[in-house]
Design goal:
heterodimer, A: 5-stranded antiparallel beta sheet, about 10% helix, globular, B: Electron Transport Ethylamine Dehydrogenase, 3-stranded antiparallel beta sheet, 8 strands
Chain lengths: ~425, ~180
Amino acid sequence: MRNMRKGNRARQGCIVLVALFLVAACGSETERQTSQPTEVLDPAQTSQPAVSDDGGERDDGGVGAADFAADPPNLNHSLPTDYPEHWLMVHDAAFFHMREGRYYIVDPQAETVGGQVRAMLSGDFIALHQQSPVRKEHYIIESFFSRGGRGGERTDVVSIYDTASLELQGEVIIPPKRFSGMPPPFGSALVNNDRLLVVYNFTPSQTLTVVDLETRTFVAEHGIAGCALAIPTGAAGVTSICSDGAFLTTNFSEGGAKASSMRTDAVIGSDDPLFEKAGVIDGIGYFPTFGGDILPVDLSGEIAAPGERWAAVTEAERASGWRPGGWGLVAADRLGRLYLLMHPEGREGSHKDGGSEVWVFDPQKKQRIARIPLATWGISIGLSNAQKPLLVVTNAALGLDAYDGETGELIKTLALQAQTPFLVSGVR
Amino acid sequence: MSWWIRPVGGLDGLAERTARGLARRSSRRSWLRAFGAALVGGAAMPLLPVARAQSDGGMTAGVPESGDAESCDYWRYCAIDGFLCSCCGGSPNSCPPGTEMSPITWIGTCQNPVDGKSYIVSYNDCCGRTTCGQCLCQRNEGDRPMYRPSVNNDINWCLGTQSTVYHCSTARIVGLGLE
């Protein structure tokens, strides 16, 4: 097809030239079409010389030197190996088209959508994601179906990408059991200095898949009956939350075998459930409850150690129904502050409604230090890992509002439009 | 499955796209006014005298009915989270043609506005076709976190089926709750 188009252009050019010169030019052009791929411009209608694909001047009988360089083929951008600290990962689960999920790598400081979207990774069927600054890799835990929308054989895969080139480095096929549903922030974990990737499975049997990222192999599946999720804990463990209100910590050997499994007493009551999400600061996970308390859980050791609950709301606020709510409803910044998405007039069933304000806490002092009224109702929050943290709110219209994390000032609504950006986090 | 998307009910894909720009300039209150959306659990919509979508099925013998089964406010949907099968070729208690109902699922307890009784509702997902994408509904009365899966609606319950691809959610009455 390409050669046919070139031939047409060449013929048109030939028509307007002096006959003798035309014959000579057409003859030589025909020969070139069969011997080398070239981009041919019409010397009769433009003053541009013909050039070859590499931008060099083509010898076509006396045409002048090129004054531009043609675009080279196969030119790809790369990202920096270490991302700027203000960049974000935005998970668009593509709720209405679940096989088309994606992760945007976003520069929120840019003004245009082209400036904000630095790159994208696919994430099929509500994927999970981890990024390792140690290994300089992204891991997408995703599912593929041999017969597309109607299913067929399901293959679960850990897709491994280089953080700079975003080229696929390899993939590890894991048991087709990974948790499927709304993307939980603790659905997977990197442990053991990012050597092991742990994935939560639900079939509804509850287990953990362990992948050795050094060898890029699936190495083990460990049972965690009655418990859910994989919250990174200590040097080489994950903690799961159990239906009876206890925490279960599973520790791994260097290669991914189960080294120990330890369970706490039941500390979560049914009267005020604990969200399965937390802001983690210095190894302490701060888990909000439906009613507005915070349960700190020390995740720095070999077993999770729940601390003492404290109230994130005053009695007056509790009486007026102020509660945490949303999907990604809690986050922490690198300055050690805890952010909670809050709504008034809470009631049974409002725990995923989102909120009109973000409350900021000093968790060490157990004190609220700021209230950030949102310009638009929020359903999820995330923070950049920058020294000046950016608070990003997925709003009720599924736009992304960026606030100054320190002043609470609305900076902008990102130009990026995602279908269902459920989770936003800072790059690592 | 249970797919959560918004703080207010009645927002489908079209409304979502239409609303995007408006909501950026609007408060939650005007957001609600603009779309006449019912507050989740807030009973803001009047109950219709007839269960509209049940004309071709969906009735449960012996259970008095009221409401619109294509509306997120329909009483059986008090803990649902997903695309309503009533809008996808099925009904509150049946899957659309060609799909397969999941044998396991999560359970809610909803109060019937007609007889005032609480019924146990099983939210079986229908599986084996790509996402329905119609009548997204999210209500969370009695929903609990993922570590209590039998009462959690964030899970894709297309488990034990030939295909684990989620299509839509039903709301089957399976028992009477304790008074």
